[in-house]
Input
Amino acid sequence: MLKKLYRVFQDHRKRAAQQEKRYQLLLVTVAALCTHLQADNAPKQTVSTKHITVESGLLSNRSPSIFKDDHGFLWIATYNGLSRYNGESFEHFQKSLDPNSNSINGTQVNAILVKTSPAWDQNHPPEYKAWVGFNDGKGLQVIQNGSVVKTLLSGKTVNLNGLYNIDDNKIAVASRNEVYLFDENFNELNKLTFKDNITAIMPLRGSGGLLLGTRSGIRFSKSQPKGLSALNHVAVKTFHRVNDKIYIGTSDGLKVYDEQSQALTPILTDDTVYSFKMTEETFLLGTQNGLLECDKNLLNFNQCKRYFANNYILSIAHDNASGISWAATRDNGVFQLAPNRLNIQNFKGKPGTHYHSITSLNGKKWIASDGDGLWENDNGRLTQVSGLPSKNILSMIPDNYGRLWLGHFKGLTVFNPGSNKITNLLPNEVVLSLKTDGQNIYVGTDSHGVFIFDLNLKQRKTINSDRGLKSQTITSLEVANSNELWIGTTDGLFNVTANREVTQFLPEHVIWSLKQVDDALYVGTQSKGIFILKNGSVYKNFTTFNSNLLSDTITDIEHLVDSGKIIFSTLNGISYLETSASDWFKNFDRKRGLFPSEFLRNSLSLSEDVLFSGGTNGWSEINNFDFSAEPVSLPLYTKTEVPSEIDYGTPVSLKVFGVNHLSQFPSNISYSLNNNPMVNLNSEDSIHFAQLPSGKHLIRIMFHSKSGVGKREFSINIVSPEKPSFYLYMTLFFFSAFGLFSFAVWYYHRNKLEKVISKYEGAQAELNHILGHDE
Output
């Protein structure tokens, strides 16, 4: 398909009047072909999010409460039932018209609390009890492992405001002005009645009493602790305990109460706080005007980041393992906020435009784009550079003189930011790729090979078909330490030595990116993954089938010399190796905070400890990104118990599934037996062995998405039938030997007797003949 695109492109290039239309036929992949929309504004800073609504499968956009359980599932209470979300799909619990069905008995789910089994292990599937509170007079029900097992407060028209863990064995249920206490076995322990509508409950340490938030102030089940009288007439929305401190969300901001000193301290004011969560680095606060994220050391509303403005954020959930946060709204579904957002600055540009080759020069950042020209970022002030012959910039590099070399559809431009001088070269060429060794500029074109310029803008050499270059569409370039030039084309990889000898590698591969790392050349291809060449031969090949690489199309490669990490830009995000010896990729995509929707050619650049990742619709600037973070551990379960010992001849079957909030792509399950290579299950979820040989066997299972992995191991002993004892063997041997000996003796004497009888009969016949008794 790609070659067909280039043939069409070559036909168009003969039409001078339609020269700009070639842009539509030279993008990295068919996915990048799109119509460019006009936009007058400069790119703006933004944040990566996912919006979970009825369009994506949610039962209702009205979501008053959410809860993330210990197994990784997100429970979403809505006004059309309850949803259990695994990151990719939903399991719904709704009221049924059939009175005999095992379904929930209400529609408006207002509160959710989930208790899970202490810890899933290799022999048991995850178990849970979900306490479900309704707001349409249907009271409280308990769902256990998918089935409704208990209906509580039946016979009463009860509307529930919230469900709260009091301790490991008690649950508090807030119903308007009443509080019901239940144990784990669903027994009602106590009932407390107050004058006000209850909005929050928190157990107090020491006294054993309850701290209650109401619409008209704070209340207590026992005596009032000192220091809280200031909240007697302030609407209280939420409580959140961190050690000895209780954070209290009110209609007048966030307060913190220290149970040791009994001091109440205002932290943030001037906004209503409906919900609160503390992460490792920040506070998350749900307000009537969006979600606030505040640094713990900068407790001022003016210094907080605000997300999802104009939305009532009623409930918040956070996953410490992945860093993902969720915010449930009054009428706009659930927002999922990507991790690493504090270390990333995202910029949204013109729709459909590919931003790339971001570099720092003269104290400013420069951003090239295919469709929106060249942008200058001067401390956040973005200005578009005018006077360039084309806005379709395909490649950009700086030189040692502080200039920018720009390859585009109308040739090659050298731009001097200091003097604003523009010099145009090669006006009849389409320049796809650029590379410099400090002294020379290597220019790859779409149909005439490689041009080499010196820093005085003089053309020195040309490498084309006359030099043995079989393909003249140059998609990537790399200069090796030995002054060798590597040339990536649409028909393989070529090596040009200092003696101008040309050798082809990887024929019929489209080479999009090249990077020399020590003695190895990393080659990024279209749809074929990563090839690593050493000493002129393929050393390794990584693909999505034999690794957790995000995509088989590798659009750019960057090497962090200080840390040794090797970073790959793919169509779906960033994959990187810790070292050249690593085989496991760590991935960073939109779900982990990147903004661009696709990551195309020249996507990566590194400047002043900031990694720039460009792509379609915008770019990301990653500051202090934790490249050393381990891959996120995703839960992986078996749906049936896995025995440690099985009789010989019994089939072995494992049905497995996982939970994945991190990836927008389908997850994969693979397995290995006794350390053999991993086998992909594709769309299946069952592992089956018809018959395993006797002995111990090790089964490894991997559930992997593009951003994390879950691993499990099972040791199974196949027991063979009992073998006869040694004495039994000896007895059988003795009787067998005795039988053979007896048969031999019998056979010997039988033959001897037959000979005697034969002699007797012969003598008898001869005697009869002599006596004349012959008949």
